[in-house]
Amino acid sequence: MRIDLHCHSTASDGTDTPAELMRNAAAAGLDVVALTDHDTTRGHAEAVAAVPHGLTLVTGAELSCRLDGVSMHMLAYLFDPREPALLAERELVRDDRVPRARAMVAKLNELGVPVTWEQVERIAAGGSVGRPHIATALVDLGAVPSVSDAFTQEWLADGGRAHVEKHETDPFEAIRLVRNAGGVTVFAHPAASKRGRTVPESAIAEMAAAGLDGIEVDHLDHDEAARTRLRGLAGELGLLVTGSSDYHGSRKSVQLGACTTDPEVYGEITRRATGAFPVPGAGGV
Ligand code: AMP
Ligand code: ZN
Ligand code: FE
Ligand code: FE
Known about the structure:
Number of domains: 2
CATH architecture of the largest domain: Alpha-Beta Barrel
Mean pLDDT: 97
Oligomer: single chain
Radius of gyration: 18 Å
Bound molecules: adenosine monophosphate, zinc ion, fe (iii) ion
Order of helices and strands: EHEHEEHHHHEHEHEHE
Largest sheet: 8 strands, mixed
Low-confidence stretches: none
Distance between the termini: 12 Å
CATH topology of the largest domain: TIM Barrel
Strand content: 15-25%
CATH class of the largest domain: Alpha Beta
Structural class: alpha/beta
């Protein structure tokens, strides 16, 4: 069984539509794929309708959180997308991405880059708008050679010249909201230090005590030393260990299934969740 529990579509900053993502996941030989767009479940319906035979879809989202000034991401799986409190928080974060992106465009204009909000809006195409869309605009304008080159202090990295913060949820609140909506939480890429500051292990321990279910250990932004350290921490804290690609289509070089999750861990996630069920492709698995 090949299980990839972290993928983005055009509902946020990926480049595959949800239906294309389902087809590409099957073509990549995956048995299970999770759709985890940033702060939105708007891709779910299209993905559910497109799951091919032999593939199972896990619905989810990647929630933008912040702890003591450090931005972090919380993967949430199989929650009830209609549960009002989590829905309201998701919409608050997603909606705040718009004025925030406009403010980043204004900062870039001050820095002499002629990017426009209309251009970014066109690239985001209705998806939950984020820095990768602005980065794509910078690539199109020739300001940077690639999307990842826009994530520097000169441009869009945390604290960078053109960076603007958005509303982000307290992770303890996110854990509570997801749990109340019947979902399961996994702290995404907790040691991805090239993206900015990371939260200390003591905070992960506090989150575990507050009901965090797992941590994403196998992720391309973690080197071997970080994975070993995180695996040990998960063992100490009784946390589930996942591995995933964090696929973004052509916006990033990572391929579907680049990292995968143990079937037993996947089974445990599905047993804990009560808000939604995995969706097997037509014909059953
Ligand atoms: P935002 O949610 O708008 O703050 O943008 C965060 C997203 O930008 C992350 O989910 C990644 O997809 C992307 N990102 C963050 N850091 C980097 C980086 N160093 N290189 C490429 N993409 C990044
Ligand atoms: Zn992303
Ligand atoms: Fe993330
Ligand atoms: Fe992600």
